[in-house]
Design goal:
31% helix; alpha+beta; ibrinogen binding protein from staphylococcus aureus fold; seven-stranded antiparallel β-sheet; 8 helices; 24% strand; 3 domains
Length: 439
């Protein structure tokens, strides 16, 4: 749209003027926003000596001057309702909506002219003039869709629901495609797992990485592969293999899901495009919408959505975009550990300190990935009495080994077979984790 003036029949009639700028002495820019079938769109109408143009990006330049401020007071909030060209002059019809006040903004090549809606001068250096809307003047014919005061049929609730469904499906498709793209990581994860399995002898207990010969490189080269000190290289490699399989399965399932969602979007768009004008045909159109899963009636007046129940835990996205659940309080800890968590999920708690129960949801027989374990341990340390310590010991164990005896205080449990993870607190990493809370 930046090649030059846009044809009249492509101008967004009905657009609202949101801002006015004067980036140069020869330019006036009207920022516009208008409604489309997909939601809302924005553009910028540039008025300059070479003629008006509709562009995507707002031209940058000097701050708005006094003339621009007067134009802002005059035009901001007005709607563009008509456009016509008369020789070298362009006339823009603007409805300000204040006591049905309308005006024409005339932009022309030639001598600068400037008068406001009351006949007072606007400015001399800008080729603009504003004048009241005359009763006997009508805009040039631009087709029924572009008629000046043509009443627009309000969108039916069913059509609004259809558009909303299309937008929702497209967002879901985009999210699934991002997940599919993660399948590209599977090869690297498998390579790291293979290298760890081939160099088990090179690992020293307690070390967080192993020096390996990367036989996948050409030529082979030395590199370091991270290891979870609490798990060792073999279990760390198993976790990498599991993640690779999960990414690959997710890509396969996601591709089928995207195909189905795209089919639904196409069906909805065809249905929206076929909305009839004839009331006799409308019932059939509404029935077709119902078959596509859209509600055929508006909600009853005064009806309220049920209030969401309070969750006993907070949810954070940790390494690999995996969720980590953190109990909100003592009774919430019991709810999270004893009712929400599954036997194979990983349970964490700051050792010998009061604090939140933390749960990492896992698949059956899935080892907890090292980076995910580190993030969960950091959250367990932060939401405990030890949150100010530099190094905190955190107990972790499968949920099946956590029990509560009758008479124990709220939040008090008895883990067995627990392992200890000494987490070194990292303020930057912790801040990033806390910012990824899902609300």
């Amino acid at each position: 749209m930046d090649e030059g003036p846009a044809p009249v029949d492509e101008w967004p009639l009905g657009a609202r003027v949101q801002r006015v700028d004067t980036p140069t002495e020869s330019q006036v820019v009207l920022g516009l926003r208008w409604r489309t079938d997909e939601g809302h769109a924005r553009g910028h109408l540039v008025l300059e000596p070479s003629g008006p143009a509709l562009v995507d990006e707002r031209p940058r330049g000097a701050p708005v001057d006094g003339f621009g401020k007067r134009l802002r007071n005059l035009l901001e909030g007005a709607r563009l309702v008509a456009v016509e060209r008369r020789g070298a002059a362009w006339r823009l019809g603007l409805d300000r909506g204040r006591d049905a006040s309308r005006l024409w903004l005339t932009h022309e090549k030639g001598s600068p002219v400037g008068r406001d809606a009351d006949g007072r001068p606007l400015a001399g250096r800008h080729r603009l003039a504003a004048e009241p809307w005359g009763d006997g003047w009508a805009p040039a014919e631009a087709g029924p869709r572009r008629a000046l005061a043509a009443p627009q049929r309000a969108a039916s609730p069913l059509r609004v629901a259809g558009r909303a469904r299309v937008r929702s499906l497209r967002r879901t498709c985009a999210k699934i495609r991002r997940e599919i793209a993660r399948a590209d990581e599977a090869a690297e994860l498998r390579q790291r797992g293979d290298l760890l399995k081939a160099h088990l002898h090179a690992w020293k207990p307690g070390a967080d990485r192993v020096q390996v010969t990367d036989f996948y490189a050409d030529p082979p080269a030395e590199r370091e592969v991270p290891v979870d000190p609490a798990l060792g290289p073999s279990a760390t490699a198993d976790g990498l293999f599991h993640r690779a399989r999960r990414f690959e399965r997710g890509a396969e399932v996601g591709a089928k899901r995207v195909s189905e969602l795209e089919r639904q979007v196409a069906a909805l768009e065809a249905w929206l495009a076929a909305e009839p004008e004839d009331s006799e045909e409308r019932s059939e159109w509404e029935d077709a919408g119902a078959r596509l899963g859209l509600a055929t009636s508006a909600p009853k007046a005064g009806s309220r959505k049920p209030q969401p129940t309070r969750s006993p835990y907070r949810r954070f996205l940790a390494a690999g975009d995996r969720p980590v659940l953190v109990g909100r309080g003592a009774r919430d800890n019991d709810e999270l550990t004893l009712r929400v968590a599954r036997p194979w999920d990983l349970w964490l708690h700051a050792k010998a300190r009061r604090g939140a129960h933390v749960v990492v949801p896992l698949e059956k027989k899935e080892p907890c990935p090292p980076e995910l374990l580190a993030d969960a341990a950091m959250l367990a340390a932060h939401f405990s009495e030890a949150h100010g310590d530099a190094i905190v010991e955190v107990s972790y164990v499968p949920r099946r080994h956590v029990h509560k005896r009758k008479g124990d205080a709220p939040g008090a449990v008895r883990p067995s077979r627990e392992k200890i993870f000494a987490v070194r607190m990292d303020s930057a990493r912790l801040r990033a984790l806390l910012e990824r809370e899902v609300r």
